[in-house]
């Protein structure tokens, strides 16, 4: 093949489609056999949306997986103000979009300009002298290994990239000082569906729960996260009461988080550093 792309993130999926449309023979290997079972927020900026709309009509994105945002409101006790105002976005001529990243990638991977092979986990790279000429991959379903050769091999395989390491490309990363506990929900009817919302924890408890953030998605859905200090997940019982107190501060919070227990019923994302990982907790998504 002309190009082998390892990883079906938004970068790999877009690149595979663009190269395929230009007449190249492209194969994309994706480890997961389907979309993640959890939901997290993702904001895309105008240049990215322009590229996506060149591949799939804008109306499809807006109807199924992406919502334009007019701004962001922040709630501080009795005070609500614009953290990002519509006037600011207008002055800067910027239109951010909040997306469901799972559906965004599924839309892209369903296009037909490249060959997408799911359920293949890359275990090592293949080299001729110092040049990478392909990869060895494990079929997750059958446990059989196969070799994939290409003129060019491209990695979109995450923070612990096998391809980047094999190419000698080092990237020092620092652990982000917060954990993001993500979830999906049905957007409450009384909440403005054109703004992302942030609720700050105004209490003086030392729980480490800092804020709740939520944003609108198409079809009456929403996605949110709780930002908290690390290690909360190690002792869920210790934050049960602080979580209840925080949710009681804001009338809108119960309609967003529902009956979820914190942190057990959220998906925790911990970013950065050599130990970067995403840990999935069971419970409602």
List key phrases describing it.
single chain; 285 residues; alpha+beta; FAD/NAD(P)-binding domain; eight-stranded mixed β-sheet; four-stranded parallel β-sheet; 18 strands; globular; disordered C terminus
Summarize the structure.
The protein is of the alpha+beta class and 285 residues long. It is 22% helix and 35% strand.
Structure explained in plain terms:
By secondary structure, the chain is α+β, with helices and mostly antiparallel strands. The radius of gyration is 21 Å and the shape is globular. The relative contact order is 0.17. An eight-stranded mixed sheet has the order 6-5-14-15-16-13-17-18. The model is unreliable at 273-285 (pLDDT under 50). Helix content is 22%, strand content 35%. Among the domains are: 3-36 and 108-166, 3-Layer(bba) Sandwich (FAD/NAD(P)-binding domain), CATH 3.50.50.60; 179-279.
Q: Note the overall shape.
A: globular
Low-pLDDT stretches = 273-285
Strand content: 25-35%
Q: Biggest sheet: strands side by side, in what order?
A: 6-5-14-15-16-13-17-18
Helix run count: 8
* Biggest sheet record: 8 strands, mixed
User: Could you spell the SSE succession in H and E letters?
Assistant: EHEEHHEEEHEHEEEEEHEEEEHHEE
Average pLDDT confidence is: 90
**In which range does the helix fraction lie?**
10-25%
Topology:
Blueprint: E1 3-6, H1 10-21, E2 26-30, E3 42-44, H2 46-55, H3 58-64, E4 66-68, E5 71-76, E6 79-84, H4 86-92, E7 97-99, H5 101-109, E8 115-118, E9 120-128, E10 131-139, E11 145-149, E12 152-155, H6 162-166, E13 179-186, E14 195-200, E15 209-217, E16 221-228, H7 240-248, H8 253-257, E17 267-270, E18 277-279
Parallel strand pairs: 1-2, 1-12, 2-8, 5-14
Antiparallel strand pairs: 3-7, 4-7, 5-6, 9-10, 10-11, 13-16, 13-17, 14-15, 15-16, 17-18
Helix pairs in contact: 1-5
């Amino acid at each position: 093949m002309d190009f082998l792309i390892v990883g079906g993130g938004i970068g790999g999926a877009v690149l595979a489609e663009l190269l395929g449309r230009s007449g190249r023979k492209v194969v994309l290997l994706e480890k997961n056999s389907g979309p993640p079972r959890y939901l997290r927020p993702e904001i895309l900026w105008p240049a990215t949306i322009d590229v996506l709309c060149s591949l799939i009509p804008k109306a499809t994105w807006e109807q199924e997986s992406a919502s334009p945002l007019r701004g962001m409101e922040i709630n501080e006790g009795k005070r609500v103000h614009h953290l990002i105002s519509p006037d600011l976005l207008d002055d800067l001529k910027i239109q951010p979009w909040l997306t469901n990243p799972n559906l965004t990638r599924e839309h892209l991977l369903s296009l037909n300009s490249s060959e997408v092979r799911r359920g293949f986990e890359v275990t090592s790279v293949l080299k001729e002298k110092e040049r990478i000429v392909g990869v060895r991959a494990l079929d997750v379903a059958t446990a059989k290994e196969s070799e994939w050769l290409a003129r060019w091999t491209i990695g979109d395989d995450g923070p612990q990239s096998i391809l980047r390491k094999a190419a000698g490309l080092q990237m020092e990363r620092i652990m982000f000082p917060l954990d993001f506990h993500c979830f999906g929900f049905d957007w409450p009817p009384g909440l403005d569906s054109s703004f992302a919302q942030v609720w700050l924890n105004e209490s003086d408890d030392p729980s480490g729960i800092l804020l709740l953030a939520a944003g609108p998605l198409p079809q009456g859905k929403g996605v949110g996260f709780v930002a908290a200090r690390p290690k909360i997940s190690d002792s869920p019982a210790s934050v049960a009461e602080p979580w209840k107190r925080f949710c009681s501060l804001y009338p809108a919070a119960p309609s967003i988080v529902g009956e979820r227990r914190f942190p057990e019923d959220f998906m925790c994302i911990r970013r950065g550093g050599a130990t970067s990982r995403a840990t999935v907790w069971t419970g409602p998504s």
